[in-house]
Design a protein that fits this description.
Elements: H1 3-16, H2 18-30, H3 39-49, E1 57-60, E2 64-69, E3 77-83, E4 87-88, E5 100-101, H4 106-122, E6 132-138, H5 146-154, H6 163-169, E7 178-180, E8 183-184, E9 192-198, E10 200-209, H7 225-237, E11 250-251, E12 254-257, E13 268-277, H8 280-301, E14 304-311, H9 320-332, E15 340-346, H10 352-358, E16 361-362, E17 365-366, E18 369-370, E19 379-380, H11 383-415, H12 422-431, E20 435-439
Parallel strand pairs: 3-6, 3-7, 7-16, 8-17, 9-15
Antiparallel strand pairs: 1-2, 2-6, 4-5, 9-17, 10-13, 10-14, 11-13, 12-13, 14-20, 18-19
This protein binds zinc ion.
Length: 443
């Protein structure tokens, strides 16, 4: 078959099974589950995968699962991903009584990934593709239920709080060369937005430890941890004029515990914050300043301070040539050039940012919805655009990359310099996952 014939076969097959793909999306929509708890969702995926006559790899980060096509075939290895988890949108019309709802459209991603898997695996095009293709349903994209996930970590069930972080740490991505996924979004007048720029973040927990004393009778005997925290807040604000506009730094600390009783000098005061920015360097730089400001607050009053860093997500860095292939395929599927916007700045964060730091990857936004992500007005208005067109476009992009001795994929991989190697990424996670105590108390 020629490349064009392969593409037509895949488009026709996905079109023929459109109803099955929509059914899977709807089933998942009706049973939203939070990250690392997506057991029913995973079952829907496995039922669909069972039509592909391939062994299903299970228990990837508790609920994740995957199939691998062309296993062992020489050439670049591509993963097509969809995310399993839901968010909380208690006011959404289709939310469960407990609040879960699919208002981030991750069920659309799963439908797209499943459609692409069917198109690539069951159409007979695999023998023309020179490389392995994996289809992965990945758990836990949303950074939520921190205490629950910390518990899973302590039990040894996961290594990191997000599904992709965990799977990189587990080695799932060790021999993967490229990654493809999409996200649903209200693209306004457009039907797709190709290139996303996003912030990454580092989570912070701060505990100031002072000395209790009678606030009226003997305050001179105390060390006031609340004063340390207030100084730290002001010190942090004094850093703001040094943040560069182009780095999109957002530092937004809150005090989560301000003291115990008003007649006792506060000795246990807690703060939390995110350090957000659009590059790893900018996050590191802002974090250094943040820590300096916090330590100075503790030092001024002679308190102790414990600073805990929690690795959040890295900013997205999409691969341009892969995005251009995706654009061409959207045009082939009937979108007009003016339907496809080029850029979107997104100051929230996504864990696919971590993947884009270690390999060529894309994460275009696809329409078919109206309303906001994570909000009560989120609504699917065009199932073809939300599930079926992305399924086809991802499958066609896989064909472009792996057809003809995987020429396209090999050129992209050869010319690609990752922001971090996988080893550097793991070192980053380890270094960003730390707790340090600084003691400025009088001895
Ligand atoms: Zn999402």
């Amino acid at each position: 078959m020629t490349k064009e014939e392969c593409k037509i076969k895949v488009i026709d097959l996905i079109e023929k099974h459109k109803d099955d793909i929509i059914k899977a999306a709807d089933e998942i929509y009706a049973s939203p589950e939070y990250g690392y708890r997506e057991f029913n969702t995973s079952k829907v995926v496995q039922n669909f995968f069972s039509k592909l006559n391939l062994e299903i790899e299970k228990d990837l980060g508790i609920t994740g699962c995957a199939v691998h096509a062309n296993k062992g075939k020489k050439g670049p290895k591509i993963v097509v991903m969809g995310e399993l988890d839901a968010v909380a949108s208690p006011n959404h019309k289709d939310a469960l009584a407990s609040g879960e709802a699919h208002t981030c459209g991750h069920n659309h991603q799963i439908a797209g990934m499943l459609g692409a898997s069917l198109g690539i695996i069951n159409s007979g095009v695999l023998e023309y593709l020179d490389g392995e293709v994996s289809f992965l349903a990945v758990p836990a994209e949303e950074f939520i239920e921190i205490e629950y996930r910390d518990g899973l970590r302590k039990e040894g069930k996961i290594k990191y709080l997000s599904g992709k972080q965990h799977l990189v740490a587990e080695g799932f991505f060790d021999d993967i060369d490229m990654a493809i996924m999409f996200h649903s979004y209200d693209c306004g007048d457009s039907k797709s937005i190709l290139k996303l720029r996003s912030n990454g973040f580092l989570g912070k927990k701060i505990a100031f430890k002072g000395v209790e004393a009678h606030a009226g009778g003997a305050p001179e005997k105390g060390v006031n941890a609340l004063n340390a925290a207030l100084l730290a807040m002001n010190n942090i604000h004094a850093q703001r004029e040094t943040f560069k506009d182009e780095d999109w730094v957002r530092v937004h600390p809150i005090i989560t515990k301000g003291g115990d009783l008003t007649n006792v000098v506060p000795a246990d005061v807690r703060m939390e914050s995110y350090i957000r920015a659009n590059s790893l360097e900018a996050i590191k730089s802002a974090n250094y300043k943040f820590d300096r400001a916090v330590k100075a607050g503790a030092m001024a009053v002679g308190a102790k301070v414990v600073i805990t860093d929690i690795p959040g997500y890295l900013p997205i860095v999409c691969q341009d040539e892969m995005l251009e292939l995706f654009r061409e395929n959207l045009l082939k599927l009937g979108l007009k050039p003016e339907d496809i916007a080029d850029n979107q700045d997104f100051t929230a964060s996504l864990d696919v940012g971590d993947i884009t730091h270690i390999m060529p990857a894309i994460h275009p936004m696809m329409g078919g919805i109206k309303g906001d992500l994570h909000a009560a007005n989120f609504n699917v208005v065009d199932k073809d655009l939300a599930y079926i067109i992305p399924a086809k476009a991802m499958a066609l992009t896989v064909i472009d990359l792996l057809f003809d001795n995987a020429k396209e994929a090999k050129t992209i991989i050869e010319n690609f310099t990752p922001v971090l190697t996988k080893k550097e990424y793991m070192d980053y996670l380890k270094n960003a996952d730390i707790e340090n105590e600084y003691d400025y108390s009088e001895k």
